[in-house]
Amino acid sequence: MAFKVAERGAIAPFIVMDVMREATRREALGESVLHLEVGQPSGQAPAGVRAAAARALDRLPLGYTVANGLDSLRERIARHYAHAYSVAVRPEQIVVTTGSSAGFLLAFLAAFAPGDRVAVAAPGYPAYRNILKAVGITCVDVPVGPDSRWQLTARVLEGLDQPLDGVIVASPANPTGSMLSAHEVAELAMWCELHDIRLISDEIYHGLTYGRAAATAAGMKAAPHTVVVNSFSKYYAMTGWRLGWLVVPDDLSRAVECLQQNLFISPPTLSQIAAEAAFDCLDELEARVAVYRANRDLLLNELPSAGFDKLAAADGAFYLYADLSDRTDDSALFCARMLAETGIATTPGTDFDPVRGRRALRFSYAGSTADMAEAARRLKAWRGV
Ligand SMILES: Cc1ncc(COP(=O)(O)O)c(C=O)c1O
């Protein structure tokens, strides 16, 4: 019998990581590359986080922690819900994870059986679809657009004629930056509860909003089966520290704990100790949000004259999703040409929507304002304006 790659392991690439590899290769050859592909805050983690890590590195043995994470961090995260949203979440509901990425794996394995059907928005974050496939769950891509503000609302789901076991939403969303209103979050959570559909609410871009604040699905008494996913990667600027958390409903808590014990043992100890300090670095973190806001304003102003005039909602996160219908139906080729000819790396829409994404691309504005201004200048020159 020949060796083979198992079908469930043969998942699609996370295209942005492939683009990043190519952009970095060009940079190493001395080309001037602007990174508008990857969604990660630039610069260092907050000073308080780094100081806490340095102290721990010097003084503590840094062995494993208990599987669900340090009690003090779980308590601090629970307090964050009281403070930021006026919502009561018990520390025992918090499970600290190795980035939200590990949180998804734990949540999917605990909540869904092979063959279950889980709806995701298209365009949407590619790893939902790819992780679901790897664990044998059927991903139901639901096309969304401006009508529902690029979101899976209760009304969109009501209109589907296929049965579902789960739904994943992100507000603010990647790649569109669109948000659900507080009313829509509550309505969606209750609709899912009523239909025995497990809601997974990805709240990783909370804090990165430019109008109204994002509403959490955590702590809703009328929807006690919802799983909430969050992370220190985006607002807290700690991507490489690989730390996130889940708010786990009671019915899943022992399963998630056992999965974590066996799959990861525990989340990274140094990162856990340091992350507690992140909640006391709000001035520094808000200063970053001000930079993202300036970047967003700059691009929203400049991109239309560079030929990118159809942009999705952009309520939050640090992304702009541009419709390219009148320029290409091969976004991968378009982005590759843009990188080669202007040095600007962006992500083809096919990462987020395998079908309609052929006519879209995503700009990430997580970098510096100087980089955004230079990108706008190069794009306009590329367009000949
Ligand atoms: C919507 C969304 N969820 C989850 C993640 C995963 O982040 P992490 O594993 O760093 O927490 C990302 C990363 O870009 C994302 O965009």
TrEMBL record:
Keywords per UniProt: Aminotransferase, Pyridoxal phosphate, Transferase
Matching CDD domains: AAT_like
Molecular function in Gene Ontology: L-aspartate:2-oxoglutarate aminotransferase activity; pyridoxal phosphate binding
SUPFAM superfamilies reported for this sequence: PLP-dependent transferases
Its EC number(s): 2.6.1.-
Highest taxon of the lineage: Bacteria
Family stated for the protein in its record: Belongs to the class-I pyridoxal-phosphate-dependent aminotransferase family.
Record's protein name: Aminotransferase
Organism of derivation: Magnetospirillum fulvum (Rhodospirillum fulvum)
Lineage of origin: Bacteria, Pseudomonadati, Pseudomonadota, Alphaproteobacteria, Rhodospirillales
